[in-house]
Amino acid sequence: MAGRSFLRVVGLLAVAVLLISGCRLEDRVTYLASDELNGRENDTPGGIAAREFIIDELVAAGVPGALPGEGDAAYTQPFVGTLFGEPVPGVNVLGKIEGTVRPDEYVVVGAHYDGFAGCQVTPADQICNAATDNATSVGIVLGLAERYAQTPPHRSIIFALWDAEEDYMRGSEHFVKNPIVPLADIVAYINFDIQGIRLLPSLATTTFALGAETGGPDLAAAVDTAYEWSVLDGIRLSSAFGAERSDHYWFLSRQVPSVFFTDSSGPCYHQAGDDISVVDWTKLRGQLNAAHLTVSSLVFGSASGEFLEPAWTAAPTMVFADAVGFFTALDRALADLDRFPPATQNTMLAHHATLSAIVDAGPGAFDGAAQTAVVQAVSYLVTALTYGACEGFLN
Prior knowledge:
The chain has helices at 4-20, 25-32, 45-61, 131-150, 170-177, 216-229, 248-253, 281-299, 320-333, 342-361, 368-384; strands spanning 76-83, 86-97, 102-112, 155-162, 186-192, 206-210, 233-237, 258-262.
């Protein structure tokens, strides 16, 4: 594992790039989540328009396509998956910046660009704009592509914008089963899904990173260092949570170390109200910067040739730190307890007391019963946070 002094140097380098690098984050997300694209479902005119926009942005940033061919063909990986026996067509968009020191080692940075056609609409709003799920994450990936085009990395980076994630991640599945580079050469996969939202006012700066332990101490250190430098209150959790919720699932299934950055599901999840009005731009910019710090730790080496070396580490089902992380989130959320119905308040308080006792008992007492209690508390909290009006909590 690289020393903390090395990570500090990488952090300073990344911050320097932040200060000089322009980024059209808000413009990009606003267009992708506009009514014009009608939700960006795969194999629809809106999805095609989103794909063309993403390619244009990569070209404008100076990011070459990752595939053989000319023009759009260099950026596109078409596929036809299946779901419940029905065909699922889509097109992944892939760009690549070649590393200057270790070009045959790759960090893949990805987010899905398709929206969910089956969301809950209202008489007044019939379009599922899918702003935070997942236009905001696409904005992060495009922002990273722009920054690394200005400061080329030592390791190569593949920027992957997946299609058909809402159809059980068929785009990332196709990539993993038909990789454009050997999976063994992928140092880590960094995934973004649901970014730039406030679950509650008390969780305005709270966000999550799942699965860093799958890359051992070095990948965990990259995430921890990013959060230390960030304005976010990041909570790192194990891959035991959210493993099948997004595109990182397929990489984990092939033992590629992976981190899943997410804000979890809030009241706007798969709702027509998930539009630009609920995006927390301050938080999203913080998430872009944390992403940049994380990736920079992985793709840059020191002057002496020292690199972080994530190595696949099969994670246990759950660890004591997960209990601490969820207790921290729930403890913060209690400041907004009055937003919930009385019965929900009582259950949240009961789970808070249970988690508090587990944390106080320490890792030595983290047995099967304690793990079951954590799972129950997490399941309830995630469900509770989807209650209420889709308002973004920005007022």
